[in-house]
Design goal:
Helix content is about 35%, strand content about 25%. It is of the alpha/beta class. A ten-stranded mixed beta sheet has the order 1-2-3-4-9-8-7-12-11-10. The protein has a nine-stranded mixed beta sheet with strand order 15-14-16-17-13-18-19-20-21, with helices on both faces. It has a two-stranded parallel sheet with strand order 5-6. A hairpin with a 5-residue loop joins strand 10 and strand 11.
């Protein structure tokens, strides 16, 4: 869709631009944004997020701030009355419809109910005789002109099926986090333009309370004064945390949403962004292909889950994978995948904790157990699983390998220090500010050698570290990697253990070549890696 098509199909966009350009420079229209836009000195862009919604981001020089505006249809007072009448009609008719089982069923049911509740006329109803208006007096249908019908259909679907007033933000594929506190304007973390205050807000506390109660009920996690804090998952897979009570949240009821893409980010895209180098990825490729246990550690919003999903492509496609999570965020590409999710609602005897999921996974003889996030006692079960030969991958909140070991060997996890060598690799990833930009970077790859009595602690070996000055990853472990030489090469039967580094260099070249050729599609990258794992270099669709 180009700018001319967008304007012709969306009168509200034309009206917005007419008003905006009276005092500002006209914005640039982009169908898609690119990460190169991070370096723009003055931002003034509009982009679509699905008809009829557009997003406008610009630098307001007068206020010295960056603004985020969602552009969607606007209902006049008369249209608001008609909207309410149609909504009331839908509520009267809804009990006679089959109960929807999925969101798609709900969307289809709503469309049927709307058509039963409205009559679309080609005429404006500003006085005078109208056959449609006369008919509506007999069958209680609400008469609308085509533009009114289009707008009211949009708002009914937005408010009943989708995410209500925040739907424009939810649709925006460039948003990472959404933060709403009380009835103040909502803030977002944009993948390209960082943290921005939006023009989206709730009118009053009642609207916000009604919205949070409705969201909680729709997600099967009702929120109330007696249960003020709820974690749940939106239909698109995003994680939402609701804080309902203003006794708990002093500035008013609030919610936070962490958005996740339906399709994981490919490992080549992660390397292209500079989060990790291709040599780091190649190292992890060898580790995961050979059944090593890897923990991705870092602080909140450091990109741990994105990286974890990316490196899962390195597990052999025929492996049996189990995931255990509080909220489903991990998406391994292996077809033999069992997805387990905790259940915290309902009576205590019916709840299923992470501890229970890991015990169930152990009985199923998986090749890999993936824990979305280790927080408590389930960490001890993960180490027991590794000790019995089940490799594990997990995310964990820790800013260094030392902090990770301290947390695992202390309450409430209490893993004995002598057990720490069941974990093979710790990847430390953080969000860092470098030269005025917020970046996500793998700061280090640490190998766990094991407990040493003389040293009185767990020995680790750093094989990769990030140089913030040059913004590059240095491989310190060449000819000195405990995991590659002692754990992998030895079992693989290498006559000379250091031949393993040739395998690492080969995989590095493969990843470099994919980036050079622009191969970033998640599924295409998976196919190439999977075929290489099975058939070797001859299967590659390109020359090295």
């Amino acid at each position: 869709m180009d700018a001319q098509q967008a304007l012709s199909k969306n009168p509200h966009l034309a009206a917005y631009l007419t008003q905006f350009t009276q005092s500002h420079k006209a914005p640039e229209f982009h169908e898609r944004l690119t990460r190169d836009m991070k370096s723009m000195k003055k931002v003034n862009v509009i982009y679509p997020v699905g008809d009829p919604i557009f997003i406008h981001i610009w630098d307001d020089e007068e206020a010295s701030t960056r603004r985020y505006a969602n552009i969607e249809p606007v209902l006049t007072n008369q249209e608001k009355e008609k909207y309410q009448r149609v909504k009331d009609s839908i509520l009267r008719l809804a009990p006679f419809e089959p109960t929807p089982k999925t969101q798609d069923d709900l969307r289809a049911t709503l469309k049927r109910l709307i058509e039963k509740s409205i009559r679309v006329s080609g005429e404006r109803q500003a006085g005078g005789f109208s056959p449609a208006k006369l008919l509506s007096q007999f069958d209680n249908k609400v008469t609308l002109d085509p533009l009114e019908a289009s707008k009211i259909r949009y708002f009914l679907e937005r408010d009943i099926v989708d995410s209500g007033p925040i739907e424009p933000i939810i649709r925006d594929p460039y948003i990472e986090d959404v933060s709403s506190i009380g009835t103040y304007n909502i803030f977002v973390v944009h993948k390209i333009f960082d943290t921005i205050e939006t023009n989206v807000r709730f009118i009053d506390e009642k609207e916000l309370d009604d919205y949070l109660r409705g969201m909680g009920e729709r997600m099967g996690r009702p929120v109330s004064e007696s249960r003020p804090i709820v974690d749940a998952v939106l239909p698109d897979g995003s994680r939402i945390n609701l804080i309902y009570s203003d006794d708990v949240s002093q500035r008013g009821a609030s919610f936070t949403i962490r958005k996740f893409s339906d399709t994981p980010t490919s490992i080549t895209q992660i390397c292209k962004w500079g989060t990790m180098s291709t040599s780091v990825a190649a190292y992890l490729w060898i580790c995961l292909q050979n059944g090593m246990s890897v923990f991705v550690c870092g602080e909140t919003a450091s990109g741990k889950t994105t990286s974890l999903n990316g490196i899962l492509s390195f597990i052999k496609p025929k492996e049996k994978v189990f995931t255990a999570e509080d909220t489903p965020e991990v998406r391994p590409p292996q077809p033999l995948w069992q997805q387990l999710v905790t259940r915290s609602s309902g009576p205590p005897e019916g709840r299923v904790e992470m501890f229970d999921l890991l015990k169930a996974a152990l009985r199923s003889r998986p090749n890999y157990i993936i824990v979305g996030e280790i927080r408590g006692a389930e960490g001890a079960v993960a180490f027991q699983a590794m000790q019995t030969g089940h490799p594990c991958i997990a995310t964990f909140h820790a800013s260094s390998v030392q902090k990770m070991i301290q947390r695992f060997t202390s309450d409430p996890i209490n893993v004995p220090a002598t057990f720490m060598d069941n974990l093979n690799v710790c990847m430390i990833q953080m969000a860092v500010y470098n030269k005025g930009r917020m970046l996500r970077r793998v700061l280090a790859i640490e190998e766990i050698e094991g407990y040493n009595d003389q040293a009185g602690g767990v020995l680790t070996r750093r094989v990769f570290n990030w140089d913030p000055v040059k913004d590059m990853h240095n491989f310190r472990g060449r000819n000195n990697s405990y995991i590659l030489e002692q754990k992998i090469a030895e079992k693989a039967g290498y006559a000379d253990k250091r031949e393993i580094y040739k395998e690492l260099d080969l995989r590095t070249r493969i990843l470099d070549r994919m980036i050079q050729l622009g191969i970033f599609d998640y599924y295409e990258v998976n196919r190439i890696i999977a075929r290489f794992n099975e058939e070797g270099v001859a299967s590659l669709p390109f020359k090295l």
